[in-house]
Amino acid sequence: MTGTPALWTIASVTDAALARAAAARATTEAPALDRARFLSSLTARLRRCLGAGGGWELLLRVRRATAGHDARLDVSLRPAGSPAPDPGDEPDLSCPLPHGPAGRPAPAGPPLAEALLRADEDTAAVLRRLDEQERLVRLHREELHRTDQGVLALHSDLEAAALVQRGLLDAERAARTETERARHLLAFLGDASATVTSSLSPSAVLRRLSGLLVPRYAGHLDVWLFDEEDVPLRAGDDGTHRAGVPERSAATVAAARTGRPQHAAAHPGALPGVDDLPLCAPDPRRPQLAIPLTARRPLGVLTLTAPGPRFDPDTSVMLVELARRAAIALDNARRYERHRDTAETLQRAQLTELPAPPGLLLAARYLPATRGLNIGGDWYDAFLQPDGGVLAVIGDVTGHGLHAAVVMGRLRTALRAYAVESDSPAEILTRLHRMFRHLQPDLYATALIARFRPGEPEVVWASAGHPPAVVRGADGTVRVLDARPGVMLGMPVPYVHTDHRAGLAPGSSLVLYTDGLVERRALGIDPGIERLGRTLAGLSVPELEQDPQAAADALLEPLLHDCARDDDVCLLLCHTLA
User: Fold this and answer.
1) Whole-angstrom Cα distance, residue 13 to residue 431?
2) Model pLDDT for residues 495-550, shown as the tens digit of each residue
3) Quick count: other Cβ atoms within 10 Å of Cβ 156?
4) How far is CA 371 from CA 34, 110, 200, 342, 493, in A?
5) Distances from the Cα of 306 to the Cαs of 12, 84, 190, 239, 310, in angstroms?
6) How much is the pTM?
7) 462, 486 contact by CB (below 8 A)
8) Which of 512, 513, 514, 518 is closest to 560 using CA atoms?
9) DSSP-derived secondary structure for 342-357
């Protein structure tokens, strides 16, 4: 909706000023900046019109507010005498009137001087607005400066935090590396300890130790054993092992004298638990670490040459601990060897020389165990009875070592004593059983006794839980005397053993043995007995009669050549002559 327009004729500067004053009065309610912009633009147009000359008409028209549009004041300038503009035409200038028109624009206005004074109000409003904007700009600048300072501080904090985080990550990575390295050292120590301590041979202990340490942890390895004239082992990083008496280094001698690990180098090692020799001592070309080998007593010194420019502290701790365990293994191996040698000596001393009765050839073998502490307990015996008969005995006492060898000697002596009073194998075993139960309640024994009499084509035998004897006939056929054996000697039950008889024609052979010959952990005893039977069948009568000792060896070799002996082995070969 459009209000009634007001028309101003512009012919002079005064007319233009009055028209501008009227427009200013009509836009009193307009926003200050919009009003200032509108009046400035109107003034510029009026100035151009005056400069162009001639008469001009200024049309002021107020447009009422409509739906979606605020009220406004439209201004149109045209040369005097031009047709009136259509209400729908776009005005030359327009000023919004948010609060509605102040009233119909009047052709007459306030005096010119007053209008001019009021014009400064618009300028003052603009200046106030500019001051306000400048104040806001200053505030914004200060806020921006503080923001910049905060951003810089934040960047600095973030950079510091990043450096700290990087340091933490580096520390964590280093800690993980150290942990992994320590884990590898502990794993190596455990595996090496198991490898070294699993042997009961002193030389094998030292060989395994050198194989574990050279060249990864030591360039060279020397072992000085106090009770041996020569050093049993010297190992180099080239894989060589050589015996000899090296010149003792200052570190080795100091370790032997003080009983503490010693480090010798051109620089202090600062290794945990290790003494540094004075720098005035003769320095080796590479750092040396001399570690005493001490178990129940000082055994010697292990001297290691560093594989690089220096020994690592963590590695040195592992080496000292491994040397301690190797010393224990070495001491145990030596004690075992002494124990084993004593038991074997006692065992062999109690094995009697076989008789040579007419019509009967005897051959026996005793082989001590080559692994573990399994010597002692197996025995054989053969002796004449007053009536000319021969008793052949094979037996095995449970347990091993010196104690088993001593018990075996007692059992053998008692058996010979009972055999004086009786020629029945079963009766002898029954008496032995009663005696063993009374004197050795914690031990048991197996035994088999066979009785031969001149001119009798048979053998009488009795068994106390022992593996069955094997018989080879003169025709080469083999059979096993597998009648049910009696209980083991010493079992906590009363028992009476029984005699058994088996035909044994001239030219036949009877083989008695202990379980170490035929028993294998993975296979049991039956396959071994079958192999023994096949081996016995492969022998001929001339071989058995011409050289029974060689025949006994021929029986042992096929059964023992492919395995280590975990137990003693006894064999007694009895061959009747035709």
Assistant:
1) 161
2) 999 999 999 999 999 999 999 899 887 778 899 999 999 999 999 988 899 999 99
3) 10
4) 114, 135, 8, 15, 34
5) 114, 114, 22, 15, 6
6) 0.55
7) yes
8) 518
9) HHHHHHHHTSPPPP--
